[in-house]
Design brief:
Layout lengths: L4 E5 L9 H10 L5 E4 L6 H16 L4 E5 L2 H6 L4 E4 L6 H8 L4 E5 L4 H10 L3 E5 L16 H9 L4 E4 L8 H6 L3 E4 L1 H4 L5 H12 L3
Parallel strand pairs: 1-2, 1-8, 2-3, 3-4, 4-5, 5-6, 6-7, 7-8
Helix pairs in contact: 1-2, 1-9
The protein binds the ligand Cc1ncc(COP(=O)(O)OP(=O)(O)O)c(N)n1, the ligand Cc1nc(C(=O)O)sc1CCOP(=O)(O)O and magnesium ion (MG).
Amino acid sequence: MSDCRLYLITPPRIDLATFPAQLASALDAGDVACVQLRLKMVGDDDIRRAIDALRPIAQDRDVAFILNDRPDLAATGGCDGVHVGQEDTPYTQARKIMGRDAIVGVTCHDSRHLAMVAGEDGADYVAFGAFFDTATKEPKARAEPEILSWWQEMMEIPCVAIGGITVDNCAALVKAGADFLAVSGGVWNHADGPVAAVKAFNQRIAGR
Ligand SMILES: Cc1ncc(COP(=O)(O)OP(=O)(O)O)c(N)n1
Ligand SMILES: Cc1nc(C(=O)O)sc1CCOP(=O)(O)O
Ligand SMILES: [Mg+2]
């Protein structure tokens, strides 16, 4: 049985009239380690409103709530952590804003070098991707599962796999050593809905 866990990323656009209930059902469907609120091209007030609506849903279930891109809003909004990319607030600054105890994760694309740097700097996890085609964004790089195995052999810091991950293609990433599968479309766009998707991911992660 694998120690790998699901890392849920919100859809690119959310309706706060309906999405909180959808998120709650998805989190109640099986094991989810964390939720990342990822909203691009929206104003700070929209992000704050989304944090206020969604953070308690995750935290009440002992699911870590992580904000994408914005350590300033993550810290003031009571989030458990932040995810920063190579073009976002640099790790060291994000850590200063978030504090020692918060989760700070860093995008490393397909780069062993970037991952080593992030790990040495003190990142709580490194994220590799994109492993598959994705409609959610235009990824900067294509990663191969082997980078996860390489990382696992070298380092204790957890690694996250991201990009186009679905119930049907995730097994190779679990086998290669991903500690977390970061998934957006593979859950929210699943043919049978997000509840079925979370259940199915949990089964695949468990090797069933
Ligand atoms: C878990 C995780 N991994 C990678 C990313 C991508 O971050 P970034 O490269 O900054 O791109 P955007 O998501 O900001 O478009 C992520 N968000 N989460
Ligand atoms: C946000 C993100 N970052 C990526 C990277 O490669 O760094 S791929 C990606 C999209 C994740 O959504 P989906 O599960 O729908 O593919
Ligand atoms: Mg970013």
